[in-house]
Automatic annotation (TrEMBL), chain B:
Part of a SCF (SKP1-cullin-F-box) protein ligase complex. The keyword ATP-binding does not apply. Involved in ubiquitination and subsequent proteasomal degradation of target proteins. Together with CUL1, RBX1 and a F-box protein, it forms a SCF E3 ubiquitin ligase complex. The functional specificity of this complex depends on the type of F-box protein. In the SCF complex, it serves as an adapter that links the F-box protein to CUL1. Residues 23-84 form the SKP1 component POZ domain. Residues 136-182 form the SKP1 component dimerisation domain. InterPro entries: SKP1, SKP1-like, SKP1-like_dim_sf, SKP1/BTB/POZ_sf, Skp1_comp_dimer, Skp1_comp_POZ. Belongs to the SKP1 family. This is SKP1-like protein.
Amino acid sequence: MSAGRCLSDLPDDLLRHILFFAPTKEAAATAVLSRRWRSLWRTCGAVNMDSRSYGRRLDASARDAFFRDAEAALAAATAPV
Amino acid sequence: MEVDKGKGEAEETRKVAEADRDTVTLKSSDGKLFEVSKEAAARLSTVLAGMIAGGSIDDNGTDLKQIGSEALENVVDYCNKHANSIPSAALISSSISFNTAPFKEPEEWERKFVDRLSHDALFDLVEAANFLGMERLLDVTCHKISEMMKGKSPDQIREVFNIKNDYTKEELEEIRQELAWAFYDD
């Protein structure tokens, strides 16, 4: 534990714990950060759908997008949520 | 014989004195000593609770070889602040398990506590909290890092957290297509 540490120094379990708190859309987007992050979000144990990621007012098309994404996220998550 | 007996008595006295103390002394990997409320340590850390109950607390400083002095100072600071704040009922019940109990948002003082930390100190504290089985501190620190990632593009996250992109262009495109729903309004 010395100076100049980076997030990737943390073990996978702790990175999953961080993603556990993130809105699912943002957690899934971390898959592109690096190879190590590719499937961490799938096993973080939570699917947090946040309507605020879909605009201030949930009109019909935003609502459709919300549910479509929720379905995609739940299908992609591999740990029980 | 006499000497041994005397030593035994001294040992006995020391143990009694230790049981009576309301603080425990913790020693960092670099040899610094910190005093922490015994009650708060036992309530907030499953590992320290076990050591206190099992009598493996050393009066001269219990060795925590995995934790540096800066992280241990933050752990102790957190415990002592916690001891002084009135814990809400919800907080006590949420300390059972983060998987079964809903996460309770950080309280104002917890927010301030993690906000003042550098990245390095924050990452060290995450590991220390994990090592000591401090569920609430682990939640609060990990929650803070997730907030730091919020609203940032992958490039910004890589920059802030010093993450090296080791994908090929083709791989990146493949993932973006696979997870199109996570990227469509970027």
